[in-house]
Amino acid sequence: MKSLRNTALGLAIGVAGATTAFAGELTIATVNNGHMVEMQKFTPEFEAANPGITLNWVTLDEGTLRSRVTTDITTKGGQFDVMTIGMYEAPIWGARGWLEELTFDAEYDVDDILPAMRGGLSHEGKLYAAPFYGESSMIMYRKDLVEAAGMSIEDNPSWDHIREVAKAITNKDEGVYGICLRGKPGWGDNMAFITTMANSFGAQWFNEDWTPALNSEAWKDAVTFYVEMLNESGPPGSEGNSFNEILALMNEGKCGMWIDATIAASFVTDPAQSKVADKIAFAQSPQKATTKGANWLWAWALAVPAGTKQGDDAKKFIEWATSKSYIELVASKNGWGSVPTGTRQSTYDNPKFQEAATFDEAELKAILSANPEDSTMNPSPYVGVQFAAIPEFQAIGTAVGQQMTDALAGNITVEEALANGQAAADREMKKAGYY
Amino acid sequence: MTDRQRQIWIDRAAVTAAWIAALVFFFPIFWMVLTSLKTEGQAIQVPPLLIFEPTLENYLEIQERTNYFKFAMNSVITAFGGTLLALLIAIPSAYSMAFNTTHRTKDVLMWMLSTKMLPAVGVMMPIYFLAQKFDLFDTRTLLVVIYAMMNLPIVMLILFNYFREIPKEILEASRMDGTSTFNEIRQIVLPLAWGGIASTALLSIILCWNEAFWSIVLTTTDASTLTAFVASFQAPEGLFWAKVSAVSTLACAPIVVFGWMAQKQLVQGLTFGAVK
């Protein structure tokens, strides 16, 4: 019997441990981005300033975070008190009553938040998420290679010029490729970039009556250009590349040009991780038929789910994490070059920040020029630059993204990819009752 | 070439093939440890660096950012707890099927095994709702139950095979002496099949330890295991290979040591007792 008793005791120890969250304990779901990681390190400062509130962090990869917070919010699970969400989710979830409205006192200075960020995180004038850091997209290029080819890249060059430069600086024998662009499928991966490119070619996701517009000539021209340019001057295996893969190539000096999130500027100019840190220059995104929608707008923002029982404490935390004083706190510990950017005008006005960040001007210019409410050449019914802020877009964007990857890999033609994408989008929109 | 010489060559070829296979299996672990000692910049260099100045900065940052021991303790409790629960259910069931076989026994075993063919995500929502309803979300109790259910078919099948190797005559003799079923299991079956039960338990512990899906979906802060800990180091924007390698090394280390110590029993378990 002794061994059975021991077994039972072991099992009892094994199954022990049911725990519940205590009042004053905030559970915060976040991603493993550099700025978020830094925020976690400042937990003691927040807890010291707010006695009675303790912070529990749940760090998840981006895909898991999206599915976890979506499941939690739709099932009213109440697992999280603060959620890290993006600009796509904030207005949709706010409109559905899934998020609590955020209001702040005068000291917080909500007017200091960049208007594009504030607008993108609001629905009908109500703010549902506070931006923790924001980004747009821009050209990051190897100045040395471009100059050696006797060429230059100005702000908002034409796509034809970019293609010419990419061809000129490609040196496949030395493993240097003129242009690196996202190819991995996903609405937030290849479709974020391809949508901005399509916007500038005059394309759009949906017509005014919500019918998908992927069968337009503008889409065909944009995607054909993208596939041909990457085949000419892109690295092999581009269909598997997204932000991190290209960042690795860029830091190794294998890419002549990269058009992607402005946050990348801080990585490619960091001598600790980039071999070409002192050779990088920046320019605003390329354009073609229109000046609209050429660069995206995104924010990682903090929101309070409507199901939480600790709304007041959660808002107190968000107020702290997205305040001017938090930015100053980070600057005092890590330097002005390490503060979260893309959220507040006061950051860009600060001379110390201007001195520390070599990319600040280009980043601010890109963020300010993005307008989610007017991002297509012809009128469109949706809000968003690199996405359409409707619940159905996630599925549509991912399905179309897969087609684009297939076209890039040469498995199907561009025409087939767009026809398949159009059919998938049409099916989804009909099912959702748009027409 | 004589038969003896031919045999020597065959043996040498077999040993060489075994070494090559072992090196192929070991290489990812070697590479993971090597990468964990590089900086993020070094980790992505092409061609990969083999000679470099090793650094422990990744391990220090992990320690600074997170509480490794909390995750490790959750892994230990849920892996051992899940295995114990699975054994408690599987031993009497396997006994019943091994010694009271009917013409449906094999079908029952196959049916149980077929539940392993269902992708876990297929039952995610029902389990999620049940966890919510019984207020078990983010508890080790929930993971123990899930892990036990997850491994039950395999544990049952292995134990069934072990129990079948016990001569029925021994059990019949004990019944002649008037032994109860409970005592028959405790005093005869368990001691005779102890090696098989130990190797089954080891295999189950390893399967529980490496389980990631349920651990990530059903926990937040209190019950997260080392697999959730590893997953949390992926970054959508920024390099993370060196840190993920370091955190993976930390997550693997306890079970690798455990597996090394128990390799004999483990091989027995994996071969379903075919090798004695």
Automatic annotation (TrEMBL), chain A:
SUPFAM superfamilies: Periplasmic binding protein-like II
UniProt keywords, alphabetically: Signal
Signal peptide residue numbers: 1-23
InterPro entries from the UniProt entry: Bact_solute-bd_prot1, SBP
Superkingdom, natural source: Bacteria
Subcellular location field: Periplasm
GO CC annotation: periplasmic space
PANTHER family recorded: ARABINOSE-BINDING PROTEIN-RELATED, DIACETYLCHITOBIOSE BINDING PROTEIN DASA
Similarity comment text for this entry: Belongs to the bacterial solute-binding protein 1 family.
Name assigned to this protein: Sorbitol-binding protein /mannitol-binding protein
UniProtKB/TrEMBL annotation, chain B:
Domain ABC transmembrane type-1 residue range list: 72-262
Keyword Transport included in the entry's annotation: yes
SUPFAM superfamilies per the UniProt record, alphabetical: MetI-like
Assigned keywords, A-Z: Cell membrane, Membrane, Transmembrane, Transmembrane helix, Transport
Subcellular compartments: Cell membrane
Family matches, as PROSITE patterns: ABC_TM1
GO cellular component: plasma membrane
Pfam families: BPD_transp_1 (PF00528)
GO-annotated biological processes: transmembrane transport
Membrane topology: Multi-pass membrane protein
UniProt xrefs under InterPro entries: BP-dep_ABC_trans_perm, MetI-like, MetI-like_sf
Main subcellular localisation: membrane
Keyword Nucleotide-binding on entry: no
Residue stretches spanning the membrane: 12-34, 76-96, 108-130, 142-163, 184-206, 240-262
Family: Belongs to the binding-protein-dependent transport system permease family.
Designated name of the protein: Sorbitol ABC transporter membrane protein /mannitol ABC transporter membrane protein
